[in-house]
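Re-run with default settings, no changes from the original entry. Doing this only to confirm the output is reproducible before filing.
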Amino acid sequence: MSPGPALRWLVFSLSEGSDGVLGLEAEAASRDPAEAAAIATEAAGVLAWAAEAFPEGPGPVEDGADWDQALSQREEPGGWQHLALSLSASPRFLDAFVARFGDPQAD
């Protein structure tokens, strides 16, 4: 299966915790309001896909859920809008993520 449309703003990196939980993390920032809105929309799209593909989540992966999430948005000095999206993932979730969005960068 080929990946779906590539993400434009969010570049995810992949890591694995000592507990075996996989981590997908992306950050993006812009001073342009239209770009900041596009970044937020892209993050919302990733979360909407996750909720549709794995409706039992989000929840603690270490307790058996396939995915969990943390999203933060903040304004920084100079008018920068910063967004960070972290996903905790089971191997099953990671496989589906790669099929939909392509391979994340390895840490």
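The chain is about 30% helix and 35% strand. The chain has a mean pLDDT of 92.
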